[in-house]
Write a structure and sequence with these properties.
single chain, 223 residues, 2 strands, rod-shaped
């Protein structure tokens, strides 16, 4: 891991220490956020799985009803019965915040001008077609809910991946870099301090030696 190139001074070490402290706090916050996002993601995935399985079963029932209706009715009659829809659906997309992720909330409204959700008369259509159309109408809210949960799961997964990359960058790159840089600065400062201590001791020895020589010289003069 490459260290950061800085001047080995106490001021720089103090500045790097402050960065390291900030990085550690950020790492903890991001790690907590990642854990909470995972909990939310797993909960949404469980809801999505249960909803999808239920919808798939109900769609199979609708498919069977349409198959029976096709068997007892002509294709032209079915086409005419389902050609012109008499219901309108408006979809409104809003957003809610989940751990700093704005996930969609779908709200819809159905305007039924046909009455009961059927856009054809019952005189010449089989009962299986009525069952299929009724089940499809009942499926619409759950299908919209399924789309909402799948989009939420996708957005949470993307945010989890972004957070994971940030956590890894802090844990395996930035924090080790700061720690190594601080260690290097400390070693260089200790080396400089040892050098200064050695020089001071050497100067002290020289001064003592000079004092001893001067004293001897004075003693000789007195004699």
């Amino acid at each position: 891991m490459a260290e950061i190139r800085v001047n080995p001074t106490r001021m720089e070490m103090k500045r790097i220490n402050a960065r390291l402290s900030t990085a550690r706090r950020g790492h903890k916050l991001l790690k907590d956020k990642q854990d909470e996002l995972m909990k939310l993601f797993l909960e949404v995935v469980r809801q999505n799985k249960a909803l999808r399985e239920d919808i798939e079963k109900r769609i199979m029932t609708v498919h069977n009803s349409f198959t029976l209706a096709s068997a007892v009715s002509s294709p032209k009659m079915l086409e005419e019965a389902l050609m012109v829809p008499k219901s309108e659906c408006t979809l409104d997309v809003q957003y809610k915040n989940m751990m700093s992720v704005n996930v969609p909330v779908y709200k819809f409204d159905i305007t039924d001008s046909a009455g009961g959700g059927y856009n054809y008369g019952f005189a010449f259509t089989p009962g299986e077609l009525d069952e299929a159309v009724g089940e499809l109408t009942a499926l619409l809210p759950d299908m919209i809910k399924l789309a909402e949960t799948e989009k939420t799961a996708q957005m949470l997964a993307e945010e989890i991946e972004k957070t994971r990359r940030r956590v890894n960058a802090l844990e395996y790159i930035m924090i080790p870099q700061y720690e190594k840089t601080i260690k290097t600065i400390k070693m260089k400062l200790d080396e400089v301090e040892r050098g200064n201590t050695t020089r001071l001791m050497k100067v002290k020895d020289l001064m003592l030696e000079a004092q001893i020589k001067q004293k001897r010289k004075n003693d000789q003069l007195d004699d």
